[in-house]
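SEVERITY: medium
COMPONENT: batch folding queue
REPORTER: lab tech (J.R.)

DESCRIPTION
The queue accepted two submissions in a row. Attaching both inputs and their returned structure tokens so the on-call engineer can compare them side by side.

ATTACHMENT 1
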Amino acid sequence: MRDVRPTSGRVLLALFNILGAEKIRGADFLDLFAGTGRVGLSAIERGAASVTFVESVRPRASAIERAAAEGRGNVTVLSLEVRRALAWLAKRGRSFGVIFADPPYGAGWGAEVLAIPNLAGVLTQSGVLVVEHAAVEKIAVTPPWAEYDERSYGRTSLTFFKKMPLDNSADLE
């Protein structure tokens, strides 16, 4: 089992300050590659309506379930590989106002993360996707994604994406 790399306190605080309380309160929050669950648990504490954790390593998923059971909120923990979890969520019509993804550093996810099937489909049109990644690793931006902010904290970066507006101009021809 690979070591987990929890989001640092500094990055966690920055994440929620940038998103702002109005984006979190009442939101459905998806925590991909959840690891310790620290980010999603913080979203619950900040008033998220629900948090869905995706963590493929079963012992970590169990630890998240235990931590969430101590507290509050509407919590779902999926112990599935991220692609399978997103397919499962899409099939059930789930959508999220905030998606946080913290894939393993140095494993090639920078080139892949935005192309994961069903990722765009489970984000609401006005939602935000945040990817935590090594500052040296750049994210390959592909449609339907638009990057709108990036902040670096030492060796860690947070990159913020939104979905590009739907283009209905083809319907007018």
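ATTACHMENT 2
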Amino acid sequence: MNRTILGLLTAAACLAGCGGQTATAPEAPAAAEVAAAPQAIPMTNLAAIKIGPYDVQPMYEEELKDGHLNTRIAGGEVAAVRVWVGPEDATGVMVVKTEIENDYHHGHVEMPNPIPAGAKLWIEIETPTGERLKGSTPLNG
């Protein structure tokens, strides 16, 4: 019984010390603003090509000289996509393995400055069985 009385007295003291008010939860912070959807990056198509069974649409973001090259590939699954600008055998240039972004493969390619007349974008598609197929498209007109 002493414990019960002691518990009641403690509770009464707490209420009296708090001015008889009960604690309330702090106000919830204002809802965070919804981030604006990212703006679509302008892309320019290069000439579409066929590489083996694949239909390939190469394109670039903003300016060609920046080297942000993308490829949409239809016609089946691919294991890897590699791109470069230069000779077919890729001597003296960096070959870039692309990454999937949205619905296309994206790579950052080192571009020659200035881009020479007759320059080509080479695209190599590695199939799920390991076969490597390649094709090219002109970079300028």
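NOTES FROM REPORTER
Residues 59 and 88 are 19 Å apart (CA to CA).
No errors were logged for either attachment.
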